[in-house]
Write a structure and sequence with these properties.
By secondary structure, the chain is α/β, with parallel strands linked by helices. The protein contains 16 helices and 26 strands. The protein is globular, with a radius of gyration of 27 Å.
């Protein structure tokens, strides 16, 4: 809990401030009329949650730790921004909120009325513009709720007081406003799985009883409850099913999060592509969730989805592999009746320009809301510089579509001359590749746009390259910067092994190290950097062989020698 000095900066709660919080719960005539006219007022929980698809997260704003919603670098939320988001096709917004830093001392834990009024302003804007809105308890999960095993009564008292105030303040909002008990709950110092299960059940059931007791619109408001950690594993799912069975309330929603198969999500252990194992993880997960909840009439919100590698740096997951993942996730979630809410901490939809930082990602996500799109085995065709090209083949993932044509620039390729199609095998003629790479400049020389009968087009970059060249270098265990001429190629992954073949580096269980954690390419600067995180896992006095795997198929080896804090890198 923040210090009392911190509350002085944010206005210590007084009797008049507490009355201001209470005043927020008094419905206006417009609110009362709006609730009675709300199309969600009489709908079943399944129907309401279905209408929330697709959803989006206002991440790193109201859950930010600091003075206000701008503390983590995002701008203040405006109504113009929300309307811009609505124009992108989203129907619901999840607003993560951290409450503890805006509360007074025990025993009342009075919420700052200024903060509460600002949050309510944004919620009301969103509701007025037709969104469904979900507000939760977010950063509190890792700030103070996690101490429940060792401070049980104190944590539960603060949790109750917080939700009593939230529920009272928003009691008369339309039913399109949902409450979520807590985000990704976990516990420090517990005795193990059994106690964890007991504690998450206690949080969810306490949340339920506190909110329902405030009456008004909260009597049948949809309440969202997570599994332990929002994890979609069977044991955690079973625990939430038991909670729902005991509560016997038709107005409940289950929550899980999904950030893909972990090695693919962060580019580790050689999982550089959206392969069969990665796809199977997704289908198994969504099947489990559907079977436990949706098939039994309980709606599910995938309250966050994305890729963990987004936060480690650009290029962690290759663009085409990323697009295939999101295309499949959207379509399979739709098949399984799950409502998905994209995690966006400010890096996806720019909150100032109201433009997507990756328009191709948005196009693929949006297309997946209503149907399938055709993709291919790759979005990169590498043509060696200075050599006569050969025919290049791609395997199309048609996904129920048919290839109509292939555009390039302002023209198109001629079937039978520039390319052939046999089943799902697309072959680009050698002469066509030669023409497209005539400039012989390193990097992308042309972009083929594969257009299918429906869905978003699939872009294929035609790339001229030479074998990358790594130069010998010296550095320290804080950082070794390897000068690298990428020559149009891109790095896929890096292996690190000792002389005996065992893994070197922080991930000792695999020779393939984590992209943008153990190594980071910088194509503009012409470097590959190995940071402290890598050398923390390298034995002093050892020699390590690095094997760099590039997307062209080129493999380059490099040798490291560590002596104390000094590191020498030698090119093969």
């Amino acid at each position: 809990m923040p210090s009392s000095a911190g509350f002085t900066r944010r206005q210590v709660m007084t009797t008049s401030a507490a009355l201001a919080v209470a005043a927020l719960s008094v419905p206006s005539a417009a609110q009362a009329a709006g609730r009675s006219a709300d199309p969600a007022a009489k709908a079943s929980a399944l129907d309401v949650v279905a209408r929330m698809q697709p959803g989006w997260n206002l991440g790193n704003s109201f859950e930010a730790i600091g003075a206000d919603e701008t503390a983590w670098g995002n701008p203040r939320v405006t109504r113009a921004f929300l309307r811009g988001l609505k124009a992108q096709g989203f129907r619901s917004i999840r607003i993560p909120v951290t409450w503890g830093q805006h509360e007074g001392a025990a025993p009342t834990y009075t919420l700052d009325p200024v903060f509460l009024a600002r949050l309510k302003q944004v919620v009301d804007w969103a509701l007025a513009d037709g969104f469904h809105v979900l507000i939760n308890m977010h950063g509190d999960a890792w700030q103070w709720v996690l101490d429940m095993p060792t401070r049980h009564d104190a944590v539960l008292a603060q949790y109750k007081a917080t939700w009593q105030q939230i529920a009272a303040a928003f009691r008369d909002e339309p039913r399109r406003l949902l409450f979520e008990s807590i985000n990704e709950p976990f516990f420090n110092g517990s005795s193990g799985d059994a106690q964890n299960a007991t504690l998450i059940n206690e949080l969810n059931t306490t949340f339920h009883s506190v909110v329902r007791a405030t009456g008004g619109g909260n009597a049948d408001r949809l309440l969202v409850m997570p599994t332990l950690g929002d994890t979609p594993e069977q044991t955690q799912i079973d625990g939430l099913v038991a909670t729902f069975t005991a509560l016997d309330d038709p107005h409940l929603v289950a929550s899980v999060h999904y950030y893909s198969f972990w090695p693919f999500s962060v580019n580790l252990a050689g999982y550089t592509t959206f392969n069969a194992a990665t796809q199977q993880d997704l289908t198994d997960t969504f099947d489990r969730v559907h079977k436990a909840f949706v098939a039994n009439g309980i709606p599910v919100v995938v309250g966050e989805y994305g890729l963990l590698g987004w936060d480690s740096g650009p290029g962690t997951v290759e663009e085409g592999e990323l697009l295939k993942y999101f295309e499949y996730l959207g379509s399979y979630a739709r098949y399984r009746g799950l409502t998905t809410m994209l995690w966006d901490n400010g890096g996806r939809f720019n909150r100032l320009t109201r433009q997507w930082n990756d328009p191709s990602l948005y196009a693929q996500i949006r297309s997946s809301w209503t149907g399938r799109s055709g993709t291919a085995s790759t979005d990169q065709l590498f043509v060696p510089r200075g050599k006569t090209p050969t025919d290049a083949t791609l395997t199309l993932n048609l996904n129920g579509t048919r290839l109509k044509k292939i555009d390039v620039g302002t023209g198109h390729l001629v079937r039978g001359l520039d390319y052939t199609l046999s089943g799902s095998t697309l072959t680009i003629a050698a002469a066509t590749l030669g023409r497209l790479t005539a400039s012989q400049k390193h990097g992308t020389n042309a972009v083929l746009s594969l257009r299918f009968t429906h869905g978003t087009p699939w872009a294929v970059n035609v790339i001229t390259y030479d074998e990358p060249v790594l130069t010998s270098a010296t550095g320290t265990t804080n950082s070794l910067v390897i000068p690298t001429a990428f020559n149009g190629d891109k790095l896929a992954t890096m292996e690190a092994v000792y002389a005996d073949g065992t893994a070197a580096g922080p991930q000792s269980w695999t020779t393939y190290q984590q992209f943008n954690v153990a190594f980071t390419p910088d194509y503009a600067a012409g470097t590959i950097t190995l940071p402290t995180a890598f050398f923390d896992g390298v034995t002093d006095g050892s020699a390590v062989t690095l094997t760099f795997h590039f997307w062209s198929g080129t493999v380059v080896t490099y040798t490291l020698t560590r002596s104390g804090t000094a590191v020498t890198g030698t090119s093969a």
